[in-house]
Amino acid sequence: MVISLPKSFDVKHDCDIVMTIATRLEVHRLKEAISEVDAKAFFYVSRIKEVTGGVVKKRGHH
Question: 31 CB contacts (<8 Å, ≥6 apart)?
């Protein structure tokens, strides 16, 4: 999902916000990918208890 925030939160120019759900094991790779695209990008990580809808990746059995 991409959300435009013109004239919000003291942003002086149009910008996009990307929100995603990632496993704790994917967070490190996600941070690295963000840094490669924009070293000054703002991002936050928050724990959630429940997610519904969308596409859920099935786990393989070990």
Answer: 43
Calpha distance 54→62 (Å, rounded): 25
Question: Tokens for 10?
Answer: 């003291």
Around 8, how many Cα atoms within 13 Å sit in the side-chain half-sphere? 8
**For the whole model, what pTM was predicted?**
0.56
Position 30 confidence tier, pLDDT thresholds 50, 70, 90: very high
Q: Which two tokens stand for residue 44?
A: 């936050």
Handedness of CA 45, 50, 55, 60 (dihedral sign): positive
